[in-house]
C-alpha cells in the first residue's frame, strides 16, 4: 500500500509543476488582455465613467459594495444570505429570478442539512415547500433489495436528508435574501469580469432593461452554475460528460420504502426514485454517454417502456407507465469536473461553476453549502477586503480546507457510478455484485459507506478502505469453495479494475490534498493583518 502513496506523491509533484507553468502562462496572458477588455475612468466627483452605445460616457455612482455574487441558485443565494447576515454589503446578479424548473438539485443529504442549519436557512427546506424527510436508501438488484439507513442515532429527530422541488427551495432562499437591507438582488446577465492589472475589480452585466452596467467590489464570487461562462478565467476546467438523466414525475404513488431514496442497479445504468413532495416521486433514468433517444419523435417513450419499465419495482410500475404516457419527459446532461482553481486576486469560484460530480449520490448541494460555511468562517475575521493580493493568498487555504468534505463526496459519486453501471466485463460484473452484497451485510459494511454518502463522515481514508474492502470481499467470494486458475485470474482483474476506477478520481482530487492536507503550506494561512 505504501508504494501506491509514494507513486501518488511523485505523480502529484509532476502534475504540480505542469500546473504551475499553466498558471504563469494564464496570468501573463490575462495581463495582456486588460487594456482590451477594460476601459473605465473615475472623475473627481466620485463617478465611474462608462461609454454608452453611441460612444459617450454615462455616469454611474462608484460602488460601495463589499462583495459581488454572480448567480442566485443554491450556492449564490445561500452565500448572499450568510454574508449579508455577517454585515457585508452584497450585490447579487442573477440571470433569471423566476422560479427554476430543474430535475436535479432535489435531494439534500443530512450533512448538507446540518450546514443549512449553520447558515440559518433550515426553514427553507421544510413543510413550507412540502419538503420530505429522507432517512436513507434502498438498493435493488435482480429482484433483491436492501435498505441502508443514515446513521442518525446521535442527532435530534429533525436531522435527516431533505428532498423537494429545486425551484421552490431556491425561491425560498431568495425570499430570505430579499429581507436583508444590505443585500441587493438584481436580475441581469453578467457578460465578463472586469480586470485591471491581473486583479478582478467587478463585473460587467446587462440589466433587465438591456442596459450595459458595471458593478465594482473588492471581492467577486462566481456561482453561475454548471454552464458557467466565467469559470475559464478562474480555473482550468476539465469537464467530463459521463451520462444524461431522463426525468419523470410519478404522481400519487407510494415508494416501497417510505422516506427513502431508491436506487435500481439497472441495465445499462442506475434508475433513481425519491419523493419531492407529499404527492410526487421523482424518477431519474441514467443513460450513459451524451446522446439520448429523441423525446419529440417518440423514441424516448419507447425506450422507457421497453428497456426501463421491466426493471422498475412492481409497486411503481403502474405510476411509471402513466408518467411516460403523460409525456412530460425532461432530459439533462450530467457533468463532472474536479476543482482546479487558478488563484486570482479579487475573485473566487463556488458551486457547480467550480466543482461538479456525478449527481447519482445527490452530494452537490452538500459540497456547496459546506464550502459556503467554510468561506464565511475564513472571511469573518476580515473587516476590510480591499487588499486583493493579500486576500487571494489567504483564501488559498480554502482550496485545501474544503478537501475532506468535497473529495469524499466527489470520489464516492464517481466510483459508485462506475461500479453501479452494467458492464459486459466479467470482472466489473463481479465488482458490482460484490458491492451490492457487501452493503447488504449490514453493520459497518452498510453503516460506513452510507455515513460517507450522507456527508456525516467526510473522511477520504475511510472511503478508500471501504472501496477496497468491497474488492477484497469480491475476491474472497471467488475463492470459495476453492481457487482455480480462472477464478484467481478473475480476482486479479477485479482488483485491477477497482484500482482503475478509484485512482484516476483520487488523482483528479489530488492525493496530497485529499489524504495529507496538513502538509500543504496554505493549510496554515492566517488572516492578513488589517
Automatic annotation (TrEMBL):
Membrane disposition: Multi-pass membrane protein
Reaction(s) this enzyme catalyzes, per UniProt: squalene + reduced [NADPH--hemoprotein reductase] + O2 = (S)-2,3-epoxysqualene + oxidized [NADPH--hemoprotein reductase] + H2O + H(+)
An annotated GO cellular component: membrane
MF GO annotations: flavin adenine dinucleotide binding; squalene monooxygenase activity
TM ranges: 6-27, 463-482, 488-506
Main location: membrane
Pathway: Terpene metabolism; lanosterol biosynthesis; lanosterol from farnesyl diphosphate: step 2/3
UniProt subcellular location: Membrane
GO biological process: response to hormone; sterol biosynthetic process
Residue ranges of coiled coil: none
Enzyme Commission designation: 1.14.14.17
Stored SUPFAM superfamilies: FAD/NAD(P)-binding domain
Named cofactor requirement(s): FAD
Domain FAD dependent oxidoreductase per the UniProt entry, residue ranges: 66-96
EC main group: oxidoreductase
The Squalene epoxidase domain, residue ranges: 217-489
Keywords: FAD, Flavoprotein, Membrane, Oxidoreductase, Transmembrane, Transmembrane helix
Role of this protein: Catalyzes the stereospecific oxidation of squalene to (S)-2,3-epoxysqualene, and is considered to be a rate-limiting enzyme in steroid biosynthesis.
PANTHER family assigned to the protein according to its UniProt record, in alphabetical order: SQUALENE MONOOXYGENASE
Protein family per UniProt: Belongs to the squalene monooxygenase family.
Name of this protein: Squalene monooxygenase
